[in-house]
Design brief:
By secondary structure, the protein is mainly α. Helix content is 75%, strand content 0%. It has one domain: Ta0600-like (de novo design (two linked rop proteins), Up-down Bundle), CATH 1.20.1440. The longest helix has 24 residues. The two termini are 12 Å apart.
């Protein structure tokens, strides 16, 4: 049972990482937002903290990033999808 939840968390985590990497590598995403997302992806990969702690920190940072008034709406919607995916991660 426990390993099932762990693999589910890892799946959600990897899905969110893919989404964030896609935004960070998309040339139509504004440069400052690409930089913020790239930095966030690097933090997410830091295994010093548990997956749920990294997800919670990322959600908080993404909430701040999505407040950028210059962000194209399609990027904001994609970031909200990543937040939703990260919110499904529980210990």
């Amino acid at each position: 049972m426990m390993s099932s939840k762990k693999s589910q968390n890892e799946g959600s985590f990897n899905t969110a990482l893919e989404t964030l990497n896609h935004i960070a590598s998309n040339p139509s995403t504004p440069k400052n937002i690409r930089k913020s997302i790239s930095d966030l992806v690097n933090e997410l990969k830091n295994e010093q903290f548990s997956i749920s702690v990294r997800a919670a920190n990322a959600i908080s940072q993404l909430d701040d990033i999505t407040q950028d008034p210059n962000m194209p709406s399609y990027v904001r919607v994609t970031l909200w999808q990543a937040v939703s995916t990260l919110e499904s991660i529980r210990e």
